[in-house]
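Supplementary Methods. Inverse-folding protocol.

Structures were first reduced to a discrete structure-token string of length 298. This string, shown here, constituted the complete conditioning input.
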């Protein structure tokens, strides 16, 4: 395949600066390259969502993609191997959308409207937990497991108590919740991973970087044993507050009281977009509790 790389996320651009690469996965509309340092970027057609590790290319020929294991090298502004020749001279760097002015109290009203709309226009994935008000959904073992993990994360992310035993309990709850979600569910990026990614991105956006750091640290300690390389790359980006462009615009709409672009979320994976939105909704609904100090009973 011969193509030009036109748009790259900032983390993808760092990967493309390497001298050599290996193809680690190939799909119909995208493929993943691994640079010398082990980091990944995702090459795809112009229909691919803009995001931190994505590289949008044109033209995209599904019939002549390289194979997993193929090696590539960069020479100047050209990346090439046996089955791929990618020009980088027209590349521009994507950055996440600018933050819109948040209207005080609007997020709660936006979430109420979103819950009502989704109850009438159901979506697949973990977002059904949000629609159900974070209550059990009968007949779905995946949602039952996810809800238990979400409840543990809520307990673990509450402001840490001063006493050491309380801190240990909080940390154990967070660990249990994260390990319960990592690798949980179907999809190239499992539903539980997408949820955690959306939660991280939202925590950064609403000004809770320390809480995001606690969460990402727990994810980082456990991800290698519970989920795969591609999903870990997306989680690493989320740990820096970076997600798909459509997810960022969705968050901004909720905070500003505007109508979010639901169709765009529909097109992020099979249910990945809505799984990530579920994490966003949890962050927006729970942040007032996570900001409050927890007082130990005497």
């Amino acid at each position: 395949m011969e193509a030009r790389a036109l748009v790259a996320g900032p983390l993808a651009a760092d990967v493309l600066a390497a001298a050599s690469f290996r193809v680690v996965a190939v799909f119909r509309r995208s493929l993943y390259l691994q640079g010398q340092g082990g980091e990944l970027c995702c090459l795809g057609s112009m229909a691919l969502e803009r995001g931190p590790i994505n590289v949008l290319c044109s033209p995209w020929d599904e019939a002549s993609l390289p194979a997993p294991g193929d090696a590539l090298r960069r020479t100047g502004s050209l990346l090439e191997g046996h089955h791929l020749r990618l020009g980088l001279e027209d590349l521009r760097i994507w950055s996440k959308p600018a933050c819109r002015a948040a209207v005080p109290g609007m997020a709660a009203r936006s979430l109420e409207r979103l819950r009502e709309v989704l109850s009438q226009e159901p979506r697949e994935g973990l977002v059904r937990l949000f629609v159900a008000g974070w209550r059990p959904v009968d007949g779905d073992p995946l949602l039952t497991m996810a809800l238990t993990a979400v409840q543990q994360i809520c307990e673990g992310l509450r402001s840490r108590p001063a006493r050491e035993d309380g801190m240990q309990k909080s940390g154990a709850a967070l660990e249990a919740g994260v390990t319960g979600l990592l690798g949980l569910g179907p999809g190239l990026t499992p539903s539980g991973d997408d949820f955690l990614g959306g939660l991280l991105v939202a925590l950064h956006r609403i000004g809770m970087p320390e809480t995001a750091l606690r969460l990402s640290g727990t994810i980082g300690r456990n991800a290698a044993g519970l989920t795969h390389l591609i999903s870990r790359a997306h989680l690493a980006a989320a740990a820096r507050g970076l997600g798909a462009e459509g997810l960022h615009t969705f968050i901004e709409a909720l905070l500003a009281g505007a109508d979010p672009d639901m169709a765009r979320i529909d097109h992020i994976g099979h249910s990945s977009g809505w799984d990530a939105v579920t994490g966003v909704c949890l962050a927006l609904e729970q942040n007032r509790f996570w900001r409050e100090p927890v007082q130990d009973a005497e």
